[in-house]
Amino acid sequence: MNAFELPDHAASARAAAIAASDASPAETPSTPSVLFVDQSGQPGGAELCLLPLAARCVSHSEVLLLSDGPFRARLEALGVRVQVSSHARVVAIRRDNLRLGWLKAIPGIIGQIRVIAARARRFDVLFLNTQKALVLGALGKPLHRRPVVWHVHDVMTRDHFGPLQLQIVRWLARHAIDQFVANSSATANALIALTGLPADAVTVIHNGVDASAFTPVDTGDLRALRRRLGLPETAWLAGLFGRLAPWKGQHVAIAALPRLPHVHLVLVGAALFGEDAYAHALERQAEQLGVRERVHFAGLRDDIPAWMTAMNLILHTSTEPEPFGRVIIEGMAAARPVVAAAAGGMLEIVRHRQNGWLVQPGDADALVEAIETLRVMPELAQRLADQGCADVRADFSLERYLEQMTRVIHHAKRQD
Ligand code: UDP
Ligand code: GLC
């Protein structure tokens, strides 16, 4: 076993225990009604993870967004009922400015707590999908008295969060949450370390994808596809998908490019949460390194299966532990070889040189070696891609994810 092969079977065993604990929850009159709350109008990974669940619960649920944006239309297109309740001062509170600024937002915070509680009283279960949703929804528990599920999408450590925020989460976790679902064992372990919760209090449920939506095109169509997407038709393309943000490490991929003269880098995603300065810094970095013509900024896209299929390889370069990393299971579903940063949830998805390739986070030299190896050894790349595709269908299916999540919601209602 090499240093990257660190499977955590305990977590999957925990999730499996919940999965096996009772009969399959069919849609019956006793199906719990759910209010899902998410702070973002932008379609980030946590929101895209919620999307199919809200759609699955469409007849007896509603999504309350604390900020408007294109995510609303994505939900509504699937028939999901959506309410938006946004307060400018609360929207302005950010992880990185959580000092005294939030005091000005107190009236807004109280208002939002009341709005969520009033809405939650009409449902059996309150499902909180993001950090602000957690705080505002859980603090209102004395008002709504509904069982609260928190879907934890973040690794709750000092790498990402300030001490005050961690304190608040620690308190709420002990006093106001009935069910915890973590998107990976990495996320669960950080939460357990922070809160002192018993290990079996947190259910690990990995994200799932609909692999059939990622069916690869044949090579004949590949050039036409690239033409349609405005990509160079014959270049060797490495695709890096995700919002532009320093911890997502797009700069590491650009730093590797001068030593990869045959490779173009396609950055699919935008600065969703105000990281515009980083987006500009990436362009400057590419210019300074003389690789600007080989870096393609594609912006935010909806048709991810097509974009993934157009690539020769899918990269993941986060410099901090990735809580889960949907982009990598999507890349595998698209039958593309993947190279991922070996930390967090990636260690639960990628097995080095078996279904993908792991490199140390932030290590541009290792990235060069991985990409070049897979470029010059297409048989190896194909073998990893085939195994990755099979693994996603077996272990990260959308059906499995939805079944496990609906079980948690049923459990929460029964705890009431
Ligand atoms: N994504 C997208 N459009 C883009 C770039 C990314 O829809 O232009 C999607 C991507 O397919 C994935 C999600 O955004 O489903 C990112 O999720 P991930 O878990 O990888 O990272 P997060 O941004 O949530 O940290
Ligand atoms: C978060 C995490 C990401 C994860 C997604 C879905 O946005 O950053 O790693 O894949 O949630 O759970």
TrEMBL record:
Keywords: Transferase. Pfam families: Glyco_transf_4, Glycos_transf_1. Transmembrane segments: none annotated. Residues 44-211 form the Glycosyltransferase subfamily 4-like N-terminal domain. It comes from the Bacteria. Residues 225-387 form the Glycosyl transferase family domain. GO terms for molecular function: glycosyltransferase activity. InterPro entries: Glyco_trans_1, Glyco_trans_4-like_N. Gene3D superfamilies: Glycogen Phosphorylase B. PANTHER family: GLYCOSYLTRANSFERASE, PHOSPHATIDYL-MYO-INOSITOL MANNOSYLTRANSFERASE. This is Glycosyltransferase involved in cell wall bisynthesis. It comes from Paraburkholderia phenazinium.
